Task: inverse folding
């Protein structure tokens, strides 16, 4: 019998040990974790570029290593707006978009909040066009493709808004052709960039046929008691018209050689308006003042630019108090959220400093300034020529209206009046309020009347004469011409929403 | 081709089905909205890829960390292989099938690709090398023993050549002994386990004609020892590749794991 010695038997030298793979795994695991830890420490230590998933777009390149400019730690809209909408106008919020599209405060209040970064993602490289958005984001609320684009509402309606003027395209086109002038472009002159057309001007486009020696004609005989004659007005423009005044019988006069926008007619129109419809005139003036306010609002400076940190801190304290008060009170959550947003804006301002406020103006600043100057001049004119007048008793109203009709006899050939107030002329203003349309590439390929087919027979200024969306689809479809949303539409309102949301 | 055939076709089918479903989800989502790794769908694929990579990472630790094995070894290896492939596919979906922009993105994608490709190369090696060794060679040897066996071959050849003729002795010392002296590994065995054998044995045929009749059995024995040594070289080369493959697969995978943790942290920290 073979005896086995006690204790652990010794192993032969030929014994083969299995390879120790776990050591390689553990060393590799330790290496991987060490790399992760080193990267984390480096990022926390300031090497922010290590954490970036990609370089920022060229416009944001200065913030490559300043993550906190946008991340807090998530990207929040107030940080985008700190530079892009320093006015806090909500122009770039979805609420601004809804207001732009609907002008319905109820819908605006219910508008879903959409973060800027949802559509404008960065970290996609220097050349990434982050201003361009994918139209699939539009389709979440709107239709998906151009094929499903609904008919333009104005085409569906068949008529435009009130144009405030009598105008027949058929007769005018025929007359222009007869005179050997350029069929459409005699009136519709392209702008310098040829994208659009210049506003129509009486002096440039109408006066050629509608004036004789610079005059649009004479008034009908009108009761002299109802108006203030030029000889009774102490103004240079009035004195020039004294010679054109002709007495007709004992009680009536005729004023000859009236000009377009004749100051004597406007003077007396506003006098009669004050006598018979003072509220209407006040409303017209208020509308003008409102428009001027709107334009001034668009030109204002960012509210917090140049504010010292101390002032910003005081503003923060004020808003903290307001938010607390609104939270306690019965005010709407909408007001509270607005106050909270204002507070967030101030806090961002305090945190990131003044920086560059680069709000892109919706319209060219010079264009707004020109528009404002024109309206200011008009308001000044409105007030300076205002004649003293008080409302007349009811028995004299008919006489005033008779004077009004006689006085505006040359005007009503084209203009429309609401009582003594002339309607504003909206002709040749852009029809598509929510879209941009560049005429240049279109007129290079087609004649005007190929799209505006109704023009030769159009008898009213209100007729749309606008091709429907089907005409657009002839060229704008996949495989031919661009048919994405951004080709014609813009998400953010081109001007700041007014009134501010 | 046999080596490419999956051992468990149902795993392949399930993987293909999941990949197809993922692609379908990607396409359906892409119809509705632009793809972004940070949006819900993109994020879900990123999370799924991370979970799969984590499961893959547990594979080598299954017997060390778990008190009792969950499933058998074959299930674990199948999960490791197909989970890894699926994880890489999910990474591609997460990224939206676009090239990354930043350095970290490139690093993550490259390492994911490397981990998957090196893993699949490993699968092929594990299937092909043992089969090739078994079918193409007569000698079987443990990798760790091969240096000893080569030494023994040399000693055996030296003993065999004791008392040989001058011509045979010269042939042995000049042409054969240097080749027997050490292991001569080569990548060529990957394509053919008998790579270069005929060319190397050809001198034996040549010298045989000049030897006396009584010397020829000795030459045949020497040839047998030499052939065995060539097979040991092939064994050593292929087994070394089989073992060395782990070194190109495991460290990058664990580096990927580390970077994945960093990526998750930065994504959560800078949303």
Result:
């Amino acid at each position: 019998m073979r005896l086995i010695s006690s204790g652990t038997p010794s192993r032969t030298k030929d014994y083969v040990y299995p390879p120790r793979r776990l050591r390689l795994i553990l060393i590799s695991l330790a290496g991987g974790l060490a790399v992760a830890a080193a990267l984390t420490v480096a990022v926390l230590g300031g090497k922010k570029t290590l954490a970036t998933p990609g370089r920022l777009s060229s416009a944001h390149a200065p913030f490559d290593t300043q993550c906190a400019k946008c991340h807090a730690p998530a990207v929040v809209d107030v940080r985008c707006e700190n530079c892009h909408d320093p006015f806090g106008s909500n122009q770039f919020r979805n609420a601004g978009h809804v207001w732009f599209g609907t002008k319905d405060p109820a819908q605006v209040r219910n508008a879903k909040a959409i973060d800027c970064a949802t559509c404008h993602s960065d970290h996609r490289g220097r050349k990434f066009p982050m201003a361009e958005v994918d139209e699939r984001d539009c389709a979440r609320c709107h239709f998906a493709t151009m094929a499903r684009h609904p008919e333009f509402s104005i085409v569906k309606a068949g008529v435009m808004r009130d144009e405030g003027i009598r105008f027949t395209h058929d007769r005018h086109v025929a007359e222009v052709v007869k005179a050997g002038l350029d069929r459409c472009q005699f009136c519709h002159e392209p702008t310098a960039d040829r994208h659009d057309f210049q506003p129509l001007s009486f002096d440039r486009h109408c006066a050629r046929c509608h004036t004789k020696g610079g005059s649009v004609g004479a008034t009908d005989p009108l009761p002299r008691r109802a108006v203030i004659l030029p000889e009774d007005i102490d103004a240079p423009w009035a004195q020039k018209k004294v010679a054109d005044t002709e007495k007709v019988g004992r009680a009536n006069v005729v004023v000859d050689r009236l000009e377009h926008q004749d100051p004597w007619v406007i003077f007396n129109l506003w006098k009669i308006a004050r006598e018979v419809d003072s509220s209407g005139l006040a409303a017209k003036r208020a509308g003008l003042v409102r428009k001027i306010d709107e334009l001034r609002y668009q030109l204002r400076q960012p509210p917090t630019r140049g504010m010292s940190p101390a002032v910003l801190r005081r503003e923060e304290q004020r808003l903290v108090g307001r938010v607390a008060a609104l939270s306690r009170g019965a005010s709407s959550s909408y007001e509270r959220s607005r106050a909270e947003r204002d507070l967030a804006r101030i806090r961002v301002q305090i945190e990131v400093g003044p920086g560059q406020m680069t709000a892109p103006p919706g319209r060219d600043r010079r264009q707004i300034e020109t528009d404002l100057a024109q309206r200011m001049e008009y308001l000044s004119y409105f007030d300076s020529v205002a004649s003293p007048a008080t409302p007349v008793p009811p028995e004299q109203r008919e006489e005033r209206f008779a004077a009004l009709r006689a006085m505006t006899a040359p005007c009503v050939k084209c203009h429309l009046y609401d009582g003594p107030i002339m309607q504003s002329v909206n002709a040749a203003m852009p029809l598509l309020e929510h879209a941009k349309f560049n005429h240049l590439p279109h007129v290079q390929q087609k004649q005007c009347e190929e799209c505006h087919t109704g023009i030769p027979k159009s008898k009213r200024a209100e007729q749309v004469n606008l091709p429907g969306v089907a005409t657009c689809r002839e060229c704008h479809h996949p495989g031919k011409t661009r048919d994405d949303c951004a080709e014609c539409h813009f998400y953010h309102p081109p001007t700041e929403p007014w009134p501010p949301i | 081709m046999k080596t490419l055939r999956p051992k468990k076709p149902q795993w392949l089918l399930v993987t293909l089905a999941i990949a197809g479903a993922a692609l379908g989800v990607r396409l359906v989502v892409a119809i509705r909205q632009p793809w972004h790794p940070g949006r819900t769908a993109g994020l879900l694929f990123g999370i799924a890829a991370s979970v799969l990579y984590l499961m893959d990472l547990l594979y080598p630790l299954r017997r060390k960390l778990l008190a009792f094995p969950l499933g058998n070894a074959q299930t674990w290896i199948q999960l490791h292989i197909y989970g890894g492939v699926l994880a890489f596919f999910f990474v591609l979906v997460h990224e939206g099938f676009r090239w990354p922009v930043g350095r970290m993105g490139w690093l993550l994608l490259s390492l994911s690709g490397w981990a998957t490709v090196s893993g699949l190369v490993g699968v092929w090696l594990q299937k092909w090398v043992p089969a090739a060794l078994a079918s193409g060679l007569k000698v079987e040897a443990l990798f760790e023993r091969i240096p000893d066996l080569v030494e023994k071959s040399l000693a055996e050849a030296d003993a065999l050549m004791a008392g040989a003729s001058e011509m045979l002795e010269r042939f042995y010392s000049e042409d054969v002994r240097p080749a027997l002296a050490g292991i001569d590994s080569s990548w060529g065995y990957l394509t053919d386990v008998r790579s270069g054998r005929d060319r190397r044995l050809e001198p034996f045929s040549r010298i045989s004609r000049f030897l006396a009749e009584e010397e020829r059995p000795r030459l045949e024995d020497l040839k047998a020892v030499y052939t065995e040594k060539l097979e040991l070289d092939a064994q050593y080369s292929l087994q070394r590749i089989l073992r060395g493959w782990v070194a190109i697969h495991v460290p990058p995978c664990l580096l990927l794991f580390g970077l994945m943790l960093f990526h998750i942290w930065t994504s959560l920290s800078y949303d």
Q: What stands out?
A: The mean pLDDT of chain A is 83. The two ends of chain A are 105 Å apart (CA to CA).
